Structure formats: structure tokens, C-alpha cells
Amino acid sequence: MRLEGKVAIITGSGRGIGKATAVKFAQEGARVVVCDVNLEDAAKTAEKIKELGGEALALKIDVTRIEEVEEMVQKTVNEFKKLDILVNNAGITADAKLVKMTQEQFDKVISVNLKGVFNCGQAAAKVMVEQGNGVILNAASVVGLYGNFGQTNYAATKFGVIGMTKTWAKELGPKGIRVNAVAPGFIVTPMTEKMPEKVLEMMKEKAPLKRLGTAEDVANAYAFLASDEASFITGAVLSVDGGIVL
């Protein structure tokens, strides 16, 4: 198992890509701290991990609140004595064209998707620097590489996450910490359920692989980057998009 003995925090892991990643990490031997703004969802993910024979702790966390984030990291260290991996997966959308986007829509997405990543990365890095090792993985998006119609706020956060990933890789590399990002394309998740069927079909046809991605496709990428197999990879953005941007 590639993550045997590792301790991982995964934010937004109550459902979707985060849930699939939590389960994958547990299957690879990690002890997983399942964090979500919805405690019921987090508990369900943790229960599934335990049913599969893994070890998990469920926590209710709002990543925009630094005090909750710091408590999350402290509880992890108290429970498992260390923190090896952070997956900054929590994210939201609030789409609208530029001329119609409200201040509330813009601010809410920036707060969760950008400041939330900063909060979690900062809190985890403090522990990892002290340990002398660790891995931070950030959820970017193909939207953060190429932009997307109607997603000014979301694209801004994902471009920002890529910038933070590369900056942190430079700052934390000498401390033994690797930092990478995964940029999913169109993945079948509860978030895509809001999209019109014709849009999903269009995206499927646009991709050379002629399908949408699954949460497990992204989870597999995170598992690789978190493992020692990726020990010489840092500052990278791994696209998991079926070639949709080619």
C-alpha cells in the first residue's frame, strides 16, 4: 500500500472528489481525517472507510474560519501524532457572467476556494516544517489554466491556487515538503449535477477520450502525488481532464 502509515487531512471530503480521495487514501493505508462543512456527510465518509477496514476521524470544518482550521490540524496531531498529507479539496461555485455577478457570489467563492486553501495550507505547513517532511496537494482546475465562460470568480480562485502551489513549492521544498496541484476537467460529481445535460454531453464529445471523468480518476492522481513514487515532483499541476483542453 502506497500510503501505509501516513496521516492525511482531506477537506471537503463528505462527497464527490473529496470522498473518493478519502476512500482511496484509506485503501492505500493512510489514516484519514475527513473534514467537511457538513458533519453528516463527513461522518458517512468516515463510516465507509471504517467498513473497509480503515481508520478515520470525521470533523466539521469551515475552511474560511482560521480558528476552525487550526483546531482541525491540532486535533489531527493529537489523535495521530503527526500530519503527513493535506489535500485542499474543499470548493464551491457560484456562476454568473461578469456583468451579472453579484458581490456576494464573488466574495463567497473567493473566501472558500482561495482563502480556505491559504488557511489550511498555512496551518498544515507549520506542523510539516517542524516535522521536516510533508505533502500538500491543492485542487486546481482546467478552468484555472484556461478560464471558463461565466466563472470569473471560480477561475480567479483556481488561477490563484496554482500560483500558491508554485510559491509554496519554492518556500517549503528546502524544508522537505512537496506541494503540487491537480487540475480536473469535467468530472461527474454533485457539483456537475447543476449543469444542463446538453452542456455535459458537449464536454463529453469535446474530450478525446469521449467521456467525463470520475471522482476516482482524480483520487488516483492525488494518491500518486501523495506517495513516495512522486518524491521528486513538486510545483507541478497535473491535469486530469481526458484531454479536453487539447
TrEMBL record:
NADP(+) binds at G12, S13, G14, R15, N89, Y154, A155, A156, T157, K158, I187. It comes from the Bacteria. The keyword Signal does not apply. PROSITE patterns: ADH_SHORT (PS00061). Its EC number is 1.1.1.100. It catalyses: a (3R)-hydroxyacyl-[ACP] + NADP(+) = a 3-oxoacyl-[ACP] + NADPH + H(+). GO terms for molecular function: 3-oxoacyl-[acyl-carrier-protein] reductase (NADPH) activity; NAD binding; quinone binding. The active site is at Y154. Belongs to the short-chain dehydrogenases/reductases (SDR) family. NCBIfam families: 3oxo_ACP_reduc (TIGR01830), PRK05653.1-3 (NF004198), PRK07231.1 (NF005559), PRK12826.1-2 (NF009466). This is 3-oxoacyl-[acyl-carrier-protein] reductase. It comes from Koleobacter methoxysyntrophicus.
